């Protein structure tokens, strides 16, 4: 039994570095074109839709790409439905029977809305990607767990609030999030807008773990077994732009940080691609003013971006990391006097 368990663990360790870069020689333009060709196709016949999206492609990764791209560009995120579900689940979390009954009823409501109106929430996205992939004989699973955004209160994050997918390609498991890849809320109306983010397609497990935590820890797909739920809760806020620009986030490891005046703070990231170092900056908000800072101690080597900064005044600061106009991540720093 110990040997079997060891082999099982080793299998997941071996797969832990699975990411989009494994397929850098694959041209996804044909898969994307097919997804566009069948834009606005209905969900009345899922086997037929899966066949249309995949039958003219030769590799599983291209077939899965066509499915993922189609779902993300044809299914809208229903924020009101999501809020309704989370409020209800929060109220019923101490009554397991009523919660189970609600989950069953809500699942039917979600599926009905998905099939009739092409609108859903994360469970609908993950279900649809899984179903279409399975119909194409691609091993794909729906993963339930926890997710963090800038609008989520982590102090109340005690029940799963998100779903995404794991897909097996070339004997490796990969992670993707069709919900977050599909679009974003309009800043003025808070209504959903399609805006595809390719960074959530076969994302690196290390970056994914910053704001995704599965109920079953094996789906972290991480080689480092120390990544706990507490680590996840304490982590920084990442935005969608992080997935478009980074393959890993190293430091700061926490959202909220307490440091001393003039103490050196390190920001460290692994970039997906080459960038101009002049585009890197911090936006530091003290509550009374904003300052755009280009730290002098900034370097890029082997696509690893390293910045060091010192706060010269005590106070409380919100710090936002930018690459060009893209906000990547947010942290807070409480700067205390040196004793």
Q: What's the structural blueprint in terms of helices and strands?
A:
Layout: H1 2-15, H2 29-37, H3 46-54, H4 60-74, E1 76-77, H5 79-92, H6 96-117, E2 119-120, H7 122-135, E3 140-147, E4 162-169, E5 172-176, H8 178-182, E6 183-185, E7 192-194, H9 205-211, E8 212-214, H10 229-234, E9 237-238, H11 240-245, E10 246-251, E11 256-260, E12 264-271, E13 280-285, E14 290-293, E15 297-301, E16 304-310, E17 315-323, E18 326-336
Parallel strand pairs: 1-2, 11-18
Antiparallel strand pairs: 3-4, 3-8, 4-5, 6-7, 9-18, 10-12, 12-16, 13-14, 13-17, 15-16, 17-18
Provide an overview of this structure.
This protein is of the alpha+beta class and 339 residues long. The protein is built from eleven helices and 18 strands. It has helices spanning 2-15, 29-37, 46-54, 60-74, 79-92, 96-117, 122-135, 178-182, 205-211, 229-234, 240-245, and strands at 76-77, 119-120, 140-147, 162-169, 172-176, 183-185, 192-194, 212-214, 237-238, 246-251, 256-260, 264-271, 280-285, 290-293, 297-301, 304-310, 315-323, 326-336. The strands form five sheets. Strands 9, 11, 13, 14, 17 and 18 form a six-stranded mixed sheet that branches. A hairpin with a 2-residue loop joins strand 4 and strand 5. Helix 3 crosses helix 7. The longest helix is centred in the first third of the chain and has 22 residues, at 96-117. It is globular and about 65 Å long. The protein starts with a helix and ends with a strand.
